[in-house]
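Re-running the complex after MR caught last week's input typo. The corrected sequence lines follow. Everything else is unchanged.
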Amino acid sequence: MFEFEPDRPRWQQVADVIRERIQSGTYPPKHLVSELSLVQEFGIARDTARKAVRALREEGLLYTVPHMGSFVSPPSEAQPAAE
Amino acid sequence: MFEFEPDRPRWQQVADVIRERIQSGTYPPKHLVSELSLVQEFGIARDTARKAVRALREEGLLYTVPHMGSFVSPPSEAQPAAE
DNA sequence: CTTTATTTGTCCGTATGTATG
DNA sequence: ACATACATACGGACAAATAAA
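Corrected-run output:
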C-alpha cells in the first residue's frame, strides 16, 4: 500500500507519482489512467482520484474523453533547437 | 456527422431530432425507427439510442413491437370540436 | 424445413459526470 | 477526504422473436 505523508494533500501526492510515470515513459501516450485504477492502487476515495486527474489534466499531461477515460497526452513539441 | 451540444444528454438531443421528424411528417405513421439506425446515423452507443426511443415511446410518439421494431404512432385525435 | 437477416431484450463491464452526506 | 448513489455513455455479448429467402 502507498504511504502518504501528512501535511500534504493526498491528491497532490498521487499526482506526483503519476506525473513521474508519464515523464519517465512508464506510462506511454494514450495510456489509460482511470479514476478507479487510482482508487485501487492508492487506496483513496474516487473524489481524491478525480482531483489528481484534474491537476494532471490542467498541466496538460492528461486529456479526458468524457465517459471513456483519461489518457496520457502525446509528447509536446518542446525544445525547438535540438535537432 | 451530428454535432452534439455538451451539457445536455445525448439521448435527449437524439430524441429531439426524431420528434421533429415525426411531427413534421418526415417520418410518417408506421415508419420504422430502429435502434441500429440511430446508432449509425448519430454515432452513438445502442444504450443511448434505446434511451431516446424509450423517451419517445413514453411521449406516445412511438410504439414498440418486441423483436420487430419501434414505429411512428398514428396521429392522435387532437382537437375534439372540429367535425 | 433450414438458413439468413433484422430487431429488440437482457445482461455484463468500464468509465466519467454530478450530487449528497 | 471519505462513502454512497445515481445518471450518462460507450462497448461487447448472447438470447429470443420475427420475417424473408
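None of the earlier attempt is carried over here. Chain A is about 45% helix and 10% strand. Chains A and B do not touch (no CB pair under 8 Å).
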